[in-house]
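Hi support team,

I submitted a single chain yesterday and got back a structure, but I'm not sure I'm reading the token output correctly. Could someone confirm the output below corresponds to the sequence I sent? I've pasted both exactly as they appear in my results page.

Thanks,
R.
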Amino acid sequence: MKTPSSRGWLVLTGALWLGGIGFGLVTLARYSLTPGDAQAMVERWPEGTRLTRQAGRPVLVMLAHPKCPCTRASVAELETLMAHAGGRVDAFVLFLRPEGLEDGWEQGELWRAAARIPGVTVLKDPGGVEAKRFGATTSGHVVLYGAEGHLRFSGGLTVARGHAGDSPGRMALERVLREGGAGGDTPVYGCSLEDPPASATR
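Hi R., thanks for writing in. Yes, this is the structure output for that exact sequence:
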């Protein structure tokens, strides 16, 4: 038979347990909805980049960390975008390889997923040189340059970290490719390219 004292401890334990779950859920939600650092705007196609741009064609570039779990959703949204684009844009995905790591380290699951997307060229970015040229600091950052070489869009393709589905970024890009004009900028949800998760160098 439970005494009033033991019942009180059960109630207290249950309250603490529920409180811990609630705190964890709030923390997780806050993390998933917190974008990466604001990216720098590079208004014209950067000089010195090794990417080739065909005259008269818009170019999309995604800068990514190959070990960022959030970027799976960004790559999935890029696949949807390219399917809707109907061949109207050339696209590159550049995967960071931090200095000191062996060649091929970046060619994992995300690399293979991006390489399967029709119309996308996947390249390595040793030392993040290209990411710096395009002003990217967060994995999943996408820039679109128009046929004349001016920036038309800068931002992310998801509404939260690791969350695939309709987003303002993807819809803005689709509108720009369909109608022209500028698509503005949106937050980028992903890991930092400069300070990746602890598992990112494994």
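A quick pointer for reading it: The radius of gyration is 21 Å. Let us know if anything else looks off.

Best,
Support desk
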